[in-house]
Design goal:
Blueprint: H1 24-43, H2 49-56, H3 60-81, H4 84-88, H5 90-110, H6 114-142, H7 149-175, H8 182-200, H9 211-215, H10 227-258, H11 263-284, H12 290-315, H13 317-343, H14 351-380, H15 382-403
Helix pairs in contact: 1-6, 1-7, 1-8, 3-6, 3-14, 5-6, 5-8, 6-7, 6-14, 7-11, 7-13, 10-11, 10-13, 10-14, 10-15, 11-13, 12-13, 12-15, 14-15
Length: about 400
Amino acid sequence: MTTTELVQPRSGTRAILGRGTLSRPASFWFIGALYALFLMASTAPSPMYSIYQQRWHFTTTVLTEVFAVYAVVILLALVLFGSLSDHIGRRPVLLTGLVLEIASMLVLAVAPGVGWLLVGRALQGLGTGIATSAISGALLDFQRPGTNRGSLINGVAAGLGMALGSLLAGVLVQFVPGPTLTSYLLLILGFVLAIPGVLLMPEPVARRSTLREVLRPQRPTVPAGKGVTFALMATTLLASWIVGGMFMSLGPSVAKGLVSGNPYLVGGLAVAALAGFGGLAQLALSGWAARRAVRVGAPLMIVGLAGVAAAALGQGAVVFFVSSAVLGTGWGLVFMGGFRMLTGLAAPEHRAGTAALIYVVAYLSASVPSVALGFLSTAFGLTAATLIFTATAALFVTVAALSTFAGPRES
């Protein structure tokens, strides 16, 4: 998220179509809330993983594979269908994503074994991947002209959604009967209630493609003539999502090893600290230029990573949670700056396709390292894996900060 102004629709290119009951501003906020709901669902299983491990006796490697299958399927969905909503409209794609998300919640709610857990997370990845680029495109379609509000709400909704999902699931798992059922049922209710909102919003996409074009895989789009700039700016997403993916897959396990009592709530708090402070930082500092956000956020991430490493070496829970908050603040700023710079490159007619490419980079950055970290944790222990993670992540964060000095000055 950056100083570069998001590209506004050219006259006649992105007229808001359809007779939706919701106004344009109401549709904007509804889409932001919908994205937060999708991200709440993505982190809701985090506090439950230790229950699943005890119940089905699988290793930390399998745990990170459960996390990674979600990200991998999102990647496939973005590659195959990333710009689909640019061709057939936002509403049909969002409705498809909601139906798949509801199906995934049902599978997770009744999963009898780790295999079904993998199936549920794969379905969830498919639904989220299909919906993500359409949501990003719709936020840009409905934002007030001349503002960067679409990219801001995209980042804030992601951070706060992940934080709320993990925290609320942790509370429910710790204190409410049916620990692996209640959270999913509440999320199903939320997704069902979102369907009328999608039907009532206006359709922003004016152009419709032929059936042959629609059936062809809609690949993510590199902004024309801006490939090198896109690659350079993408290092910011690489850094922030490596940290997010690794922390959200193993952070709860580290936290529970430092605190006695209420283990599921503690696991939820670990993810909530990172994602919540990330979302709040974006909200509070939304007026910052993108490069400034990355340059301030990167040192905060490095300090936070050092604190997490110190906590793993015996400095205790207070150090861990304070460091997680500092890490999350930096994570939010780096993501905000990177996302705004990248979306600022998108042409109006390719918004969903460019957003899809952004998230391909993001989820690839989250999934591959987290699986590697799972193997390291199983082979060498959680403490060693945490130290390797913090050192590697700090290196990528440094590269991301340095990249802001090499890109075009107007960003």
